Amino acid sequence: MKKLFFSSFLIAFSATVYAQDGVGINTETIDGSAIFQIESTEKGLLIPRMSFAQRTAISSPAEGLLVYQNSGTIGFYYYDGSSWEFVGDDQDWTETPSYLYTDEGLNVGIGTTTPDTDLHVYNASSVGVKVQRGSASGTASIDFYRSTGTGTLDASIGVNTNEELVIENHEADKDIIFNVNDGGVTKQLMYFDASNNRIGVNLTSVPQDLIHADGAIRANSGFKANDGSSTSAGFRFYNDNNTGMNLLAADNLGFITGGTTALQIDASGNTLPGADNAFALGSASLRFTEVYAVNGTIQTSDSTMKSNIVPLQYGLEQVLDLKPVSYVWKSNKEQAKVGFIAQEVEAVIPEVVTKSEDGVYGMNYSELLPVLVNAIQELEARVQALEQENAELSAKTAQR
């Protein structure tokens, strides 16, 4: 029976099979590079057809084995000695159904058969891309290159040997920018200025200082700046290096205006002027409503700090010329006050009256005290003289 079948096979193909240095079907001219050649304009060659599962189940496939897969990513596959390879570069391909896929536009999908970008990763429960280095040294990173140029590495994102995230721009003096979309407007969430070593937050331009933010900065655990000096603020305000705060000494805080320490708070909490006898507290146009003190206000009165000391010429006469008044402030008419009118006092005792640059008068009431003491002393002298005169008159009357 086997002999009969083989004979029938030879008879069926006796008119079309030719053998020279190779085997030809429907051709007498066999290409010198071919061992088997088929010619037909009506029929084709049918390769074994199987599913993805059947192809991958072939035990120990020989190198060069060719099959046609009719499930998953359909097409011809050949075994290259180590793995199955898809035949063709413009067809969809997959390793497992819906796992790794490419379309004719060369978009690659992982977990999706409809990739819409160069690489599209999809997972119903989570999404992740893992980059792992084979050794403990070096950095595991994703590298970026420009589409034009010499192919030099431009930037990378990775993890170094200390397990620290590293974002690096490999081009000299090239910035790193993090953008966000705020209602359709692109904003620079963070801007790293490589040329000037500056960081910008929420800006629309290049940062102008070491840390430049558009908006309030909140620090729950404190904010640290450099110590500064007596003329240069460590913590300063925009566009004014000469105004801000500094550390004068350990636990001593200074407030600088115009490049000069105007106010300081020492380690004991005492509030002090930046320099002796150089600054005023308030002004004629910017006044405090009230100043409270337990022990009053102490004015320096050391003789070693004074010169041209002469007896005071003001006394009872000037006191009698003063005109005490009662009044209310125009800004607060609810409370009556007592005092003097500075313009009237100026005509009597001008030393206790001041006038600001904008023409507002003021008085130093405490400087009236020496005048009052002089007036009392004059009165005491008069009283003693009268008492002496009265005593003498009483003695004369007693002798009569």
By DSSP (H or I, 4+ residues per run), the number of helices equals 5
**Class computed from helices, strands and strand pairing:** alpha+beta
- What can be said about the biggest beta sheet? 5 strands, antiparallel
Overall pLDDT confidence: 81
Report the helical percentage.
10-25%
Portion in beta strands: 25-35%
Describe the protein in words.
- The chain is of the alpha+beta class.
- Among the domains are: 224-279, no CATH class; 314-382, no CATH class.
- It is 15% helix and 30% strand.
- Strands 18-19-20-21-22 form a five-stranded antiparallel beta sheet, with no helix packed on it. Strands 4-5-6-7 form a four-stranded mixed beta sheet.
- It is rod-shaped and about 185 Å long.
What is the topological layout?
Blueprint: H1 2-13, E1 17-19, E2 23-25, E3 36-38, E4 49-50, H2 52-56, E5 66-69, E6 75-79, E7 84-86, E8 100-102, E9 108-110, E10 119-121, E11 140-145, E12 153-159, E13 165-169, E14 176-182, E15 185-193, E16 198-203, E17 211-213, E18 235-237, E19 240-249, E20 252-257, E21 260-265, E22 271-273, H3 316-321, E23 325-329, E24 332-339, H4 342-346, E25 353-355, E26 361-363, H5 369-399
Parallel strand pairs: 2-3, 4-5, 9-10, 16-17
Antiparallel strand pairs: 1-2, 5-6, 6-7, 8-9, 11-12, 12-13, 14-15, 15-16, 18-19, 19-20, 20-21, 21-22, 23-24, 25-26
